[in-house]
Amino acid sequence: MTRPAGTSVRVRLTISYAAVVVVTGVVLLGVVWLFLLRYVPAEQISLQSGSVPNRTDLVRAFVPRAVTALVVLLVAGLLGGWVLAGRVLAPLARLRTAARLVGTGSLAHRVRLPGRDDEFRQLADAFDTMLDRLEAHVEAQERFAANASHELRTPLAITRTVLEVARDDPDHDHAALLDRLLSVNTRAVDLTEALLLLSRAGRRPSARASVDLSLAAEEATEALLPLAEARRIALEVTGTTAHALGVPALLLQLVTNLVHNAIVHNAEPTAPGDRRSVRVTTATEVLHGEAAAILVVENTGPVLAPGLVATLTEPFQRGTARVHQDQAGAGLGLAIVDAVVRAHEGVLRLDPRAGGGLVVTVRLPAAGAPPSR
Predict the structure, then answer these.
(1) What single string gives the DSSP state of each residue in 225-237?
(2) pLDDT tens digits for 73-118?
(3) Apex CA 279: angle with CA 273 and CA 285, to 5°?
(4) DSSP one-letter string for 74-115
(5) Distant-in-sequence, close-in-space partners of 139: CB < 8 Å, separation ≥ 6
(6) What is the DSSP letter of 30?
(7) What is the dihedral angle through the alpha carbons of 219, 351, 187, 227, rounded to the nearest 10 degrees?
(8) Highest mean pLDDT (candidates 114-128, 148-162, 177-191, 324-338)
């Protein structure tokens, strides 16, 4: 946006400081003048020892010196105001430099304004915090774009290879090639749909409704019951009603993803009678005067280190290993859950379960609680 050039803030502050000094000097000299007039006669009075100065004599003696004093005050006000304005506005210069660097794409620069806490330091700290979040967001987006490109490139490369085989080898089993193409295409479609869902889940929903997480948990477990039975995993839903404020479709997707992950990443059976389970619990809690709907999903499984748990919400990650094309799923389940929770201004917590497995706790604003703006 192009704007006409104007007077700098430093010049305006300097003029303001000088004006205050001069006006204060004029007021003081005026008070002195009025005070002297009370004791100085208007006409000449002669005494035996000489004459007494009158008002005319006072004007001749006082006015030139008063004008000189005002000129000195003006010069001192301008010089002092220029110096003081420069010192006061110095933090803004550092903020301006940082903002220009951000405008060129450099997000690594920080103001880090020294000194005691005041309005400028608070502004600089807020600016640095914003840059920290912006840099983390940009890095996450770049990493996500790179991972997504890699994941989408793989099925395309496989498809091309299969088509080249079909073209160069007419005697090859075309039914097997078609089955391979269908499998690769299905995975590519599933991955694309998951990416679209992840992009939508990160947006803050404008229209919200009351969603009972206990009913969503029952619906999700009922839909995933055949998968759990095929893997000999017991599903258990307990708890009370928990009305959360959010988008029903997204919250159902959240619960479904958590239950699905708990089933797929459960412990491998080592004996026919091994007990493997997924437990879903819902409740309502009041903490610090604010009501929240709680959803807890825990499963049996291998022992997880806390460092590995911290990476599970990264897209295309399982622990510290990347998801490969031959693995089930796209590695976006918990990433979608994390995006949905953040969009609903909730809290997602992942903890290793004692004895192996994972405990996922979701805390969402309860229905009836005012959403934060």
Answers:
(1) HHHHHHTT-EEEE
(2) 999 999 999 999 888 888 888 888 888 888 887 888 888 888 788 8
(3) 160
(4) HHHHHHHHHHHHHHHHHHHHHHHHHHHHHHTT--S------S
(5) none
(6) H
(7) -40
(8) 114-128
Beta strand 277-287 with 234-239 is: parallel
Provide the residue type at 205 as one letter. Answer: P
Q: Tokens 């099925």 map to which residue?
A: 155
Q: DSSP H helical segments within 115-247, as ranges?
A: 119-168, 174-201, 213-230
Per-residue pLDDT tens for 4-38? 777 788 888 899 999 999 999 899 888 888 887 77
Nearest CA-CA partner of 262 in 227, 306, 222, 211: 227
- pLDDT, one tens digit per residue, over 316-335 is 555 434 444 434 444 577 87
Strand partners, 238: 281
Nearest-angstrom CA–CA distance, 4 and 346 = 46
Position 4, amino acid: P
Q: What is the CA radius of gyration of the chain?
A: 38
- Looking at the DSSP assignment, which residues form a beta bridge with residue 286? 291
Residue 194: how many other CB atoms lie within 10 Å:
21
Residue 357 falls in which region: left (phi positive, over 0), alpha (psi -120 to 50) or beta:
left
The confidence band for 48, taking pLDDT boundaries of 50, 70 and 90, is low
Number of residues that make up the chain: 373
pLDDT digits (tens, 9 = 90+) for 204-262: 666 778 999 999 999 999 988 888 888 889 999 999 999 998 888 888 888 988 998 89
Collapsing DSSP states into helix, strand and coil, what is residue 209?
strand
Per-residue tokens: 199: 């992009």
With both helix axes pointing from N to C terminus, report the angle between 119-168 and 55-103 in degrees, rounded to the nearest 10. Answer: 20
State whether residue 312 is helix, strand or coil. coil
Q: Work out the angle at residue 187's Cα, subtended by the Cα atoms of residues 183 and 190, and round it to the nearest 5 degrees.
A: 140
